[in-house]
What does this fold into?
Amino acid sequence: MSRRVRTTAFWLAAAAFAVIFTLACTGLPHFGTTLHPYGSRAVAASVRQHTANVVSSVNFDQRALDTLGEESILFGAVLGSVVLLRRARDEDRAAPQPRPVLPSTLLLGAGLLPVTVLVGGYVVAHGQLSPGGGFQGGVMLATGLHLAYVAADYRVLRRVRPLAVFAALDAVGAGAFTALGFAGLVAGAAYLENVLPLGTFNQLASGGLVPLVNAAVGVEVASGVIVLVAQFLDQAVEIDEPRHHGAGAGAGGGKDGDR
Amino acid sequence: MSTPTAASDFLVAAALVLVVAAATAAALTRDPVRQSVVLSALGFCLALLFLVVQAPDVALSQLAVGSAITPLLVLLTVRKVRRRPRDDGPAGEGPAGEGPAAADPPGSGGRGSRR
Amino acid sequence: MSILPFLAAGWIFLIGVYGMVTSRNLVHAVGCLAVAQTSTYVLLLGIGYRRGGTAPVFSDIPVGTAVVDPVVQALVLTDVVVGATVTALLLSLVIQIRKRTGTVDPEALTDLKG
It folds into this structure.
């Protein structure tokens, strides 16, 4: 498809989309409506299950099976990236040269790293009570760990981040979520049904299955993001491409013969 | 009842304007490096919008993912894509001006030498 | 104001797709896809908003207070995280394309290679 055909096709589709979407919007309930049938039911169910944060209750209890599917997407995407970005046979690894770091950066990074990791853990642990949970806290934990790269250099990051451990933890998190679902089956209820003791409303140990699934998701998201960023960092910092992909003029013909 | 409602409506509208402006800028920024910065700003504006529509869970998630992880991955990809093999010159785009990195306009990715 | 947030979501979607269609760099196209995806967040949260409602977290407000719709928030929450990992998967595909063909310009990727 040539560039002009493609642009024309886009404008036609965009015009059609704009008209139909606007018409559809006029049929939606108004912005800020007080009528939320699903919302009211979710709130009632959440209070019944002693979970103060309704969003966590929806994610990890009422719609836990959907979240399991969503976790599988995450797991699959991380796995796909690892497979795509692994070091090819004809690439070599070059250790990056250490670079001087500003003392202020070092101080800030070294000070912020434990704080960020602590806050991340707190956010994961309090997912059933306050805004936060496995997804947000997991990403925070993963980001916090990479402050080691900002504050020091790549070799320090490699030392605080044993990649094999985190790759295994990613699988453990995904597996734990799946295994937790069987608690319902053992108790004679449905898969992933919340059958554990519900605890006291607004206490750390409340919501039954919610904190456990939440923790499993936290482990999976944190280690998944760490593994993901590690693959990209490896590619960007360490792995060198072989010569024939360079801008050399005669490279094109030789390359096709290689494959 | 009407005054706080109007005030929150105003906040939502202001945040929406910010988000729409940031999204438009992000889509129209052609250089991936600059785009990653605008994407980060978009993530921040979105977190602001989510906060005023009473979605703190989502705001937290968006702040961590949209303004940190996604731009970081885009930047790392750009660095990888623009990197040249070590044998062809000094590693990285150093001050050596005649390296192949300088001869290649950003975004075209070495197309000219190939076709 | 009654349908304005929905229209804003439509605009964000269209501008993201426009960026993808006219893109000359696959990394930029992936960034535009991320932009287009944010329209779903705006649309869903716009539908779930309730005037005068607070956040659906009952740890410091009495049970029974009017809250915004938590179901769409849960949807958007998972959407955000999945969106990031899918972006990462696409970016690693871009790196592979660069390795195999030496270019990230979609216009230059005309012939299929086995």
About this structure: Residues 53-241 of chain A form one domain. The CA atoms of residues 43 and 204 of chain A lie 19 Å apart. The interface with chain B takes residues 32, 53, 55-56, 94, 123, 131-133, 135-136, 139-140, 142-143, 225, 228-229, 232-233, 235-236, 240-243, 245-249, 251-252 of chain A (CB under 8 Å).
